[in-house]
Amino acid sequence: LLGDDGRLAATIFEEVTALAARTGAINLGQGYPDDDGPAFMAEAARRAILEGRNQYAPGAGIPELREAVAGHQRLHYGLEPDPETEVVVSTGATEAIAAAVLAFVSPGDEVLTFEPFYDSYGATIALAGGVHRTVPLRAPDFQPDPDRVAAAVTDRTRMIILNTPHNPTGAVFGPEVLARIVELAIRHDCIIVSDEVYEHLTFGVRHVPVASLPGAWDRTLTISSAGKTFSYTGWKIGWASGPAPLVAALRTVKQFLSYSSGPAFQPAVAEALALPLESFAGLARDLETKRDLLAGGLEEAGLDVYRPAGTYFILADVAPLGLADAAELARRMPAELGVAAIPVSAFCHADGARATRSLLRFAFCKRRDVLAEASRRLAGIA
Ligand code: PMP
Ligand code: GLN
């Protein structure tokens, strides 16, 4: 995370995407789909721009979108946030995560995440002066060991950042482990920040928001984003919901990060979030077949593949090829093979980086012909 000079370095996503562009490689590194989301959303945004919705949106987000977020939480999970006080719209999930950490973490406070962890958690904990503790997720199932979680949560723990479905492992945390985490959070009076941006991208398992478990609501901020659910990552429309005091603190900090953004995108996302339940399954069904296509290609190339239960990322181990250093391979692959991927060690501190040294993350939210071509190229990896 920190460069050699001790400053925050360029993100791994920026780095790999630049390398893929420079070499003309197929970019299975940074997670973004190569097909945009539903056309009606682009149309709604275009209409909004032409209707003049181009000046600052309210800091907390436009009322239609806050209502749509509340309605979505009710329809899918039986949660009932009040759109007036318990929902906030953010500039992507990234801003909501940063605002939550900056709102609640003081210098020296401990924040627990699972490792590998999405890179912005480490960076924002560092910006807040927090102490970052981790519990490892390990192959083959990448589920947290409840005893290790229990050992890591203490009275010094201010916040637990959860991410399920999990980037980069694709693990979907089961209700038992979530219940254990809630119990620990209550015992040690911690806030839970639950990053659920992949909530609708699961394959054969159901996503359970931690906020829906008994005792969790009062201490949980649930975060999601239109980027993943609707395949509009660049719009950077995210949101958080939770009890009014936590949302109020998040809104306060958010005023001084972006204040607000995307006034013409917000109505389009509101329209999409209000779609009926069945409409949300299509993207996951499509992604599941893509997961299997790329998994097949990676297996044929001789890698050990961990087929994920959620997200659009797949982890593969290059050790069976006699290769040990996935980071070194990731730097060579774009030029030598024409495929870019991300080393899992980029999502880890030193110990975790050693344990995940031979793992690569591939994004499969790409067109079938692109995945087929990537598989063909990967056959040359050995
Ligand atoms: N959390 C996770 C786990 C992610 O993978 C991402 C990547 N999109 C984000 C947060 C950031 O989401 P957004 O683009 O909406 O800021
Ligand atoms: N979330 C995306 C990923 O994990 C990348 C987002 C970003 O580039 N910051 O690949």
UniProtKB/TrEMBL annotation:
Keywords: Aminotransferase, Pyridoxal phosphate, Transferase. Residues 25-365 form the Aminotransferase class I/classII large domain. One of its GO terms (molecular function) is transaminase activity. It comes from the Bacteria. It holds the Pfam family Aminotran_1_2. Its cofactor is pyridoxal 5'-phosphate. InterPro entries: Aminotransferase_I/II_large, Kynurenine-oxoglutarate_AT, PyrdxlP-dep_Trfase, PyrdxlP-dep_Trfase_major, PyrdxlP-dep_Trfase_small. This is Aminotransferase class I/II-fold pyridoxal phosphate-dependent enzyme. The lineage of its organism: Bacteria, Bacillati, Actinomycetota, Actinomycetes, Micrococcales.
